[in-house]
Design goal:
The complex is a heterodimer of chains A (about 100) and B (about 475).
Chain A: H1 5-14, H2 23-38, H3 74-78, E1 84-85, E2 88-89
Antiparallel strand pairs in A: 1-2
Chain B: H1 8-17, H2 22-40, E1 43-46, H3 48-63, E2 74-78, H4 105-112, E3 116-121, H5 155-162, E4 168-173, H6 179-185, E5 188-191, E6 211-216, H7 219-229, E7 259-263, H8 273-288, E8 292-296, H9 304-319, H10 338-349, H11 352-364, H12 370-392, E9 397-401, H13 417-421, H14 428-432, E10 437-445, E11 448-455, H15 461-474
Helix pairs in contact in B: 2-3, 5-6, 7-15, 9-11, 9-12
Classes of the chains: A mainly alpha (about 100), B alpha/beta (about 475).
């Protein structure tokens, strides 16, 4: 399977990744090869086989009670934020 | 004090007997780390000051009669585990300035048992790689030959244990990231059953495959450390509520009557002939120990690499969506608007392989392709799991190679992702099926270590460690040291 430059630009946009001009042909080539490689899966007969939903047989994702379990750590967590002001995360203006 | 050759078991004994203090031991390892760091690059962060303080606390606990089996034993963590107040980078520019506000459950468990943290180990960026070449902090070198890769993604953990810069290290395995570097560096690696060890605080790559484990000198050391790391954790929704046995208790059990399966598909044309003969040698050791062999077939196993390269990137693209340049991590300079902030922060903050996997995953999950790729792969995954289940109805454990070849040269495979992905051809199956696996040193080819892989049924860690330990009582491959670090 062969991907085009437009395909890569579209995937990168969906994934919110800014690619450089030099990166685009590299990903056109390597993703095309990856999809040719995973195309092998078409050979496997899977009619009537259900998709695996959990790596351990018979188990499903556990749910917890919808109750508050954490205390407020805002100040601590915001120490890792690139930009905060008055306890708020600062981003460029969203509404013009 | 002969730190270099020591195992965790021997160090614990020495500490208990008062042969040396934890401070002395910690200092000797810090010296080794400092001397080896320029050549190997195994560490991203060395926490010397905190380590000496923890060691002093361990010595004080011992003096007060409050020491446990592991009190004062030094170790280091793969930099994928969050450590409170310490840089936690996951090998990425994206997190190059991230100081974790909390400890991963694995870290707090080992801390509670009295171990001393020496630092944080280098790794492939976000654990995506099989050679440790994708790290933002530069490649790690293989202690057996510094021109070679140590394997990945836990390359720092494997290289550090192989060079005895640490007696043991934590690691993680999504497609072979514990077992393959353990094999390439001549050390012991264990990836437990999915759900055995909590993933809380372990930076997520592919959540249905990721599992924390250990790289150690011996299976006995792995048995000592696995207990404190394991067990139910309400903070991880996939953690399994199943009691943790004392893994050390059954280490010496007889292997008489054990049936070991030889998976036909593991001995394919891709396996290096010299590596194969080392595996055959190991089989003779097991025969001597009373085990019998039976050939089994897992016909869908050859599809495990393509299955993995749909499922893992899909989960990676979802998990890594959290890195947005807003709450933590890298942010680009002077963003024009919110979209520009997202796109440039991610484009500049992630390395080439991580971007490749995010895009692969985004594509297989996108409208019109979800059924053809993602659901198809999850169906094939079911077939691969069923192959293993069928095999385990006939045998106790499976045995085969860990990796098709010994370590390869740094740079040799970095241009072709498919060639790199095929390094994990024998390890990925266990991740897809959630099974525990180990790699043990079983000899050398051209001066480079070869790894023997064991795979067991779900929650058979005790039996697997027993089989590994009995093998290590008969052989001394795991005690060999690279000349430069002896």
């Amino acid at each position: 399977m062969s991907l085009t430059r437009a395909d890569i630009e579209n995937i990168a946009r969906l994934a919110r990744l800014q690619l450089t001009e030099a990166e685009i042909p590299v990903y056109v080539d390597s993703l095309s090869r990856i999809f040719a490689f995973v195309g092998e899966l078409d050979r496997a007969p899977t009619t009537g086989i259900s998709p695996m939903a959990h790596p351990l047989p018979g188990l499903a994702q556990r749910l917890r009670a919808d109750a508050v379990s954490e205390t407020d750590h805002r100040d601590l967590y915001q120490q890792n934020a690139p930009k905060v002001e008055a306890g708020l995360y600062v981003v460029p203006k969203v509404i013009e | 004090m002969s730190a270099p050759a020591a195992t965790v078991a021997a160090l614990a004994k020495g500490l208990a007997a008062g042969d040396f203090s934890s401070v002395e031991l910690t200092r000797s390892y810090l010296d080794r780390i400092q001397a080896a760091q320029p050549g190997l690059n195994a560490f991203i962060t060395v926490t010397a000051e905190a380590a000496l303080a923890e060691a002093a606390a361990a010595d004080a606990a011992r003096a007060a009669g409050k020491a446990g089996a592991l009190t004062g034993v030094p170790l280091a963590h793969k930099d994928i585990f969050c450590t409170e107040g310490v840089l936690t980078t996951c090998g990425s520019k994206m997190l190059a300035n991230f100081v974790s506000p909390y400890d991963a459950t694995v870290v707090s468990g080992l801390r509670r048992s009295g171990t001393v943290m020496l630092g944080k180990l280098n790794m492939d960026e976000f654990a995506m790689g099989s050679s440790n070449e994708t790290s933002y902090f530069g490649p790690v070198c293989n202690p057996w030959n510094v021109a070679m890769v140590p394997g990945g993604s836990s390359g720092g953990s494997a290289a550090a244990v192989a060079a005895r810069l640490v007696p043991a290290a934590t690691a993680t395995d999504t497609g072979g990231s514990i077992r393959q570097p353990a094999a390439l560096c001549g050390v012991t690696g264990i990836k437990p059953t999915y759900g055995r060890v909590s993933r809380y605080g372990m930076i997520a790559f592919a959540s249905s495959l990721d599992q924390a484990g250990l790289i150690t000198v011996s299976a006995e050391d792995a048995a000592l450390l696995l207990g404190p790391m394991s067990g139910f954790d309400p903070k991880d929704s996939t953690s399994v509520e199943s009691p943790v046995p004392d893994y050390t208790r059954t280490l010496g059990d007889s292997l008489e009557g054990m049936t070991i399966g030889i998976v036909k598909e593991f001995f394919d044309k891709g396996l290096d002939a010299d590596c194969e003969s080392r595996i055959r040698d190991a089989m003779r050791v097991y025969e001597k120990l009373g085990a019998t062999f039976r050939e089994v077939s897992c016909p869908n196993l050859p599809l495990s690499v393509p299955t993995y390269y749909v499922v893992a990137p899909a989960e990676c693209s979802s998990n890594l969506a959290r890195f947005d340049g807003v709450r933590f991590g890298y942010r680009c300079e002077s963003p024009k608007n919110l979209t520009d902030l997202y796109m440039r922060s991610r484009g500049e903050g992630f390395g080439a392989e991580v971007k490749r996997r995010i895009m692969t995953g985004t594509y297989v999950l996108s409208a019109g392709y979800y059924d053809a790729y993602y659901l198809k792969a999850q169906r094939v995954r079911q077939l691969i799991s069923a192959d293993f289940a069928r095999a385990f109805s006939e045998v106790d454990l499976l045995l085969g190679p860990t990796s098709p070849t010994p370590a390869f040269a740094i740079g040799a495979k970095s241009d072709d992702p498919i060639t790199m992905y095929l390094n994990d051809i024998y390890t990925i199956g266990a991740n897809l099926a959630g099974l525990p696996g180990m790699s043990l040193p079983c000899g050398f080819v051209g001066g480079l270590p070869v790894g023997l892989q064991l795979i067991g049924p779900h929650f058979s860690e005790a039996r697997m460690l027993n089989a590994a330990h009995r093998y290590q009582l008969e052989t001394d491959w795991h005690l060999q040291l690279p000349a430069a670090f002896a």
